[in-house]
Amino acid sequence: MEVLHAKKRLGQVFLVNRDIAVAEAAHASGKTVLEIGPGHGILTEELCKSASRVIAIEKDERFCRLLEGRLKAENLELVRADFMDVREEKRIRDVDIVIANIPYYLSSSVVEWLAQNRLEAVLCLQKEFVEHMLAKPDTRSYSKLSVVSSLLFRIVKIMGVKKGSFRPIPKVDSAVIYMQPKKTDITEKEMRMLGLIMQHKKKLVKNAIFDSSSALGVGRDRLADVVSRIGLKEERVFKLPPESILDVAKQLAASLE
């Protein structure tokens, strides 16, 4: 395999462990698959063996040329673009599943996009990011990411991935997860309320709301009236399950309309 140097500014690290690629591609059978950042194409090659169609988005022209020379699969469509620039195109959103080893800096953006489009995915992400996604209430890693991930997806950790599975070797280990979207509806306003509450996760619900007064643009007198009508106000935020935190966020959003 020809080796091209990674560009730090693009967060490039490349999978070299084919066993990981095979495990990820096992979810591609008969499906239209979107891959973000194929790089040298080790995963792309495995995807093309079982998927009905593979759309691979690569912004680095060097790897586009490399992939065109290496992979001659008829079911592969190579898109020369930055995922963030083409993510709203119908052909990009109209896939069955996303299977990718994405740059770590794109993790939050890709998860948010998957939620918006209710897409199934198999992703290799930074281990710490996955730990936050899977964290339970009353644990150190429990965060807004934990709450939102639990509400919007059923997530299963498939395997851990040692940092030596990539070149250049990153500073941290990774993990492969399967994500299945749920039908939970959260409005933009409710998501904002949830985020404000989780910023003060160690506090009682009522105090988390009061401490968000400035961000909400609402005076404490009005907030006192709102808080008096909200359930769970005497509970500590980080001890509440995601569904309860969403309920508080919905109550708060409705009260401030």
Description:
This protein has 257 residues and is an alpha/beta fold. The protein contains 13 helices and 9 strands. The strands form 2 sheets. It has a 7-stranded mixed beta sheet with strand order 4-3-2-5-6-9-7, sandwiched between helices. Strands 1-8 form a two-stranded antiparallel ribbon. The longest helix has 14 residues, at 242-255.
Summary, kept brief:
The chain is an alpha/beta fold and 257 residues long. The chain has 13 helices and 9 strands. It has 2 domains: 8-181, Rossmann fold; 188-255, Helicase, Ruva Protein, domain 3.
Largest sheet: 7 strands, mixed
Uncertain segments are none
Proportion of residues in β-strands: 15-25%
Instruction: Output the strand order for the largest sheet.
Output: 4-3-2-5-6-9-7
Order of helices and strands: EHEHEHEHHEHEHHEEEHHHHH
Shape: elongated
